[in-house]
Design goal:
The structure is a single chain. The chain is mostly beta strands. Helices cover 0% and strands 54% of the residues. It has no helices and eleven strands. The radius of gyration is 13 Å and the shape is globular. The chain starts with a strand and ends with a strand.
Length: 119
């Protein structure tokens, strides 16, 4: 079982930037890819970006080139650099599995980190 802890959220003005971090501990042998998800108030949780163990990224359409996902396998840490933030990006951001044993699968959800974009 992998434990995931998110951090880096906060309050930022529209057009601002934040860098989220996700520290993973535990065995990750069968995890093919990890992802950042978010839950916007009144909406279901959705995938924001995913990254494979080899570092291949994938982004949701709404990212529109504003976010960059990366990982440091040596540190067991995944990042989400978010630039040009918009008020509609406000929500709770989570990290979790994306693909496990060749199938889409998530694990237990952590606390997440709150991102608020407001002037």
């Amino acid at each position: 079982q992998v434990q995931l802890v998110e951090s880096g959220g906060g309050l930022v003005q529209p057009g601002g930037s934040l860098r989220l971090s996700c520290v993973a501990s535990g065995s990750i042998e069968n995890i093919n890819a990890m992802g950042w998800y978010r839950q916007i108030p009144g909406s279901q949780r959705e995938l924001v970006a995913g990254i494979t163990t080899r570092g291949t990224p994938n982004y949701a359409d709404f990212v529109e080139g504003r976010f960059t996902i990366s990982r440091d396998n040596a540190k067991g840490t995944m990042y989400l650099q978010m630039n040009d933030l918009k008020p509609e990006d406000t929500g709770v951001y989570y990290c979790n599995y994306w693909w496990v044993n060749g199938k889409p699968q998530t694990g237990p959800w952590g606390q997440g980190t709150q991102v608020t974009v407001s002037s």
